[in-house]
Amino acid sequence: MATTGETQPAKHQEVGHKSLLQSDALYQYILETSVYPREPESMKELREVTAKHPNLMTTSADEGQFLNLLLKLINAKNTMEIGVYTGYSLLSTALALPEDGKILALDINRENYEIGLPIIEKAGVAHKIDFREGPALPLLDEMIKDEKFHGSFDFIFVDADKDNYLNYHKRLIDLVKIGGVIGYDNTLWNGSLVAPPDAPLRKYVRYYRDFVLELNKALAADSRVEICQLPVGDGITLCRQTQPAKHQEVGHKSLLQSDALYQYILETSVYPREPQSMKELREVTAKHPWNLMTTSADEGQFLNLLLKLINAKNTMEIGYSLLSTALALPEDGKILALDINRENYEIGLPIIEKAGVAHKIDFREGPALPVLDQMVDDVKFHGSFDFIFVDADKDNYLNYHKRLIDLVKIGGVIGYDNTLWNGSLVAPPDAPLRKYVRYYRDFVLELNKALAIDPRVEICQLPKLNRQNTKKSATRVSFKAMHCISTFSKPANLMTTSADEGQFLNMLLKLINAKNTMEIGVYTGYSLLSTALALPEDGKILALDINRENYEIGLPIIEKAGVAHKIDFREGPALPLLDEMVNDVKFHGSFDFIFVDADKDNYLNYHKRLIDLVKIGGVIGYDNTLWNGSLVAPADAPLRKYVRYYRDFVLELNKALAVDMRVEICQLPPTEKLNPQNTRKSATRVSSKAMHSINTFLKPVNLMTTSADEGQFLNLLLKLINAKNTMEIGVYTGYSLLSTALALPEDGKILALDINRENYEIGLPIIEKAGVAHKIDFREGPALPLLDQMVDDVKFHGSFDFIFVDADKDNYLNYHKRLIDLVKIGGVIGYDNTLWNGSLVAPPDAPLRKYVRYYRDFVLELNKALAVDSRVEICQLPVGDGITLCRRVI
Q: Are 83 and 107 in contact (CB under 8 A)?
């Protein structure tokens, strides 16, 4: 009589023992080519011993490999495992940890653990394991009570009783360190989570399914963690502990009700400071038949500024904004680009060269192998590359590998794309494959076989589903699926970034010291150039776009600007590459800034991935999130077909962002008059929210406060630039003061100046209740005398990170003459009401109130002076009543 294991599925055998891939053959292929050849002898022995056990509850082989690699990548040392069984995943962990690494192993049954213990001891890692028999919850409760255990674990792996997963999470969140990882196994529960109600599931599968669903829902809404769910094994969800997100109210007030006001911003703030290369590329782009895919001048300026603020260096871009990125990269940033066709690249090259950034790009036309041979022969190139990605001629993959292994540094990564070749590797001999698929299949098989036995590298091949449910995988980091993205024909000039938005991005990037960035959706590269100009010389932009042809229109200008070397342009759909990056922990939290201006029907899909890739405190900017006012258009509004189609996707994104507790959001108003037939809108951090129209033209005294959206923006800006020592001139009841105080660190300081303490004391009880009053040094009286004293004392020179002015407009220019000495190089001065409720472009006979007309000339005078002040970079935003940010550069 056959054994139980031979005649019927063992308990738990249908859950957790293999991949969720639809093809068993493909899963077996991964095991045989990527996992088994590299599996340590001790792991193999324990796997085979465990397979003979009647209850097959072990971790799958590919998951064990993944965990081993992950632990090395995050340099884990102190870990915990709940649910040990025979110790397969425990052994995988122990082998990955350093010699003094530790694992607290908890399980209710020591008998199973002792099956694998002799193998663990033979492997020489038993000293790393502290095994405790018994239920885990009581021990976790003891640890919670002892503060020394809080934040003490680098990694925790849970593969135990699913009905307690949520109970475990409530305790483990305190024990894992900030930046540490909790991994929950079986979070896809063998696909049963999406099984229909009448599916013939085993009793225990149906019972535990609800608990797994409950866990997944809770993790998705937990603002304390970033999550990533991988289809490895039976599904594993990684939770990275982060700082708790704060709730913030979002408000909006836009002044741009006239084309004249928009033109005023362009002519006084944007165009006078627009780099010549950006202007030239903007004009060239405007002549292109697909000129609507470009970023507008002001948006390009915003990207440029943002990249400088965050000191971006290593970037990615899917799209056509290479020039903007190259301009933002530091002077010594480099991009080695190898391609057999230079013709497309040369469309934009003259402009890039003229911009003075072409020196950053090393483009080599022709086959790659001869260039690689030269580099291999020169020892200075050995180990000089951090990351190399290969998605080229598959029949040369092995030839590339033989050379690249010398060029990548120890600990660096080579990513080979298409290493499962769309599942064809396990297709039967008579499968109806296309000729080119069949031809290249043998070369991919050859590569996989070679990598599996190459002792110089560790490999990890991960599966990923595309829309057609075909599989592609990656080696270490590499897999890409093909997506078809349909785009509508759009009217001219609507896809570009406006000049003032470009200016804002440029300043923002500088303020947040961006260095490593990504852009999805490039077009001709206007916003990309703005970004590149803002980045330091070694900054990087990963640029992603489905069409290289448009990008190459601007490439010559980008090269001429000398920033093309900052740009890593990748042609093709973005989602597959993002999936590759999400599946590789090294990319998690690696980007300072990501800008998305691409297919709106994928915005939410992008967000689900980008949230793992941007660093804590980093920024994701979504463009067109007001979809030019169509979001509030009546149902029967005569919208163009593409406007109506994408509107629902934008609404969906906005709704999702509004409730996403992992991010703080701030949506900036559009930079020109709304017209549902047109499209333009950008956001800072993660931004989206419906626009509220607030008429403040006739502003009574009680409206002297900062608007809600402006307060939110200031709060976010202060966090991004890590401000600590600040000043505010004009306090009123303290609304903006409170916003600032909440953003500053505990030892942050605000010097608050106002002529009237009475108004300030209205808000003081609330400020005290918020626990931030100790950060404020309030001084009653006119500001100029105190500023003069500070200017005369050299210790105050360059001592302020941020200064906000919302006071007497007739002294704005006098304030500026003094504040320029007090703010530090790289610091910011913000002037409020610089659009003065639209009156700056009102006709001479407009019925303005007396005070509006009186102060208008002073605001005009300030704007004119700032536009020509070489000591600052400026950016004027239509937030509140207009705010101009001045970043001191000299």
A: yes
Number of H helices, E strands in the chain: 29, 33
Q: Which two tokens stand for residue 406?
A: 């010398």
Of 523, 515, 590, residue with least CA distance to 558: 523
- Across the range 441-454, mean pLDDT stands at 86
CA dihedral sign, ordered 649, 653, 656, 659: negative
Nearest to 302 by CA among 515, 537, 533: 533
Total residue count of the chain as it appears in this document: 890
Entry pTM: 0.42
Map 603-669 to HEC letters: HHHHHHHHHHHEEEEEEEEECCCCHHHHHHCCCCCCCCHHHHHHHHHHHHHHHHHHCCCCCCEEECC
Q: Does residue 602 register a pLDDT over 50?
A: yes
Residue type, 733: T
Q: Which amino acid would we find at residue 702?
A: N
Helix/strand/coil percent split, the chain, to 5: 45, 20, 35
> Using CA atoms, how far apart are residues 453 and 752, in angstroms rounded to an integer?
67
Q: Kindly tell me if the per-residue pLDDT of 481 is higher than 50.
A: no
Task: With H, G, I as helix, E, B as strand and everything else as coil, classify residue 53.
Answer: coil
9-39: pLDDT as tens digits: 333 333 333 445 556 776 776 677 667 877 8
User: Which tens digit of pLDDT belongs to each residue from 412-436?
Assistant: 667 777 787 777 887 788 888 777 7
- Report residue 508's pLDDT band, with 50, 70 and 90 as the boundaries: low
Residue type, position 297, single letter:
A
Element (H, E) at 562: strand 561-563
What is the per-residue pLDDT for 345? 64
| Domain boundary residue, one of 688, 710, 743 | 688
Compute φ and ψ for 477, nearest 5 degrees: -120, 105
Lowest mean per-residue pLDDT among 75-84, 111-120, 623-632, 842-851? 623-632
- For residues 187 and 305, membership in a common domain is answered with no
Do residues 62 and 133 both lie within one domain? yes
Residue 517 shares a structural domain with residue 387: yes
Cα(first)–Cα(last) distance of the chain, in Å? 88
What is the pairing mode between strands 567-571 and 561-563?
Answer: unpaired
Res 486: pLDDT: 18
Helix (H) / strand (E) containing 324: helix 322-328
Task: Give the domain range for residue 139.
Answer: 39-241
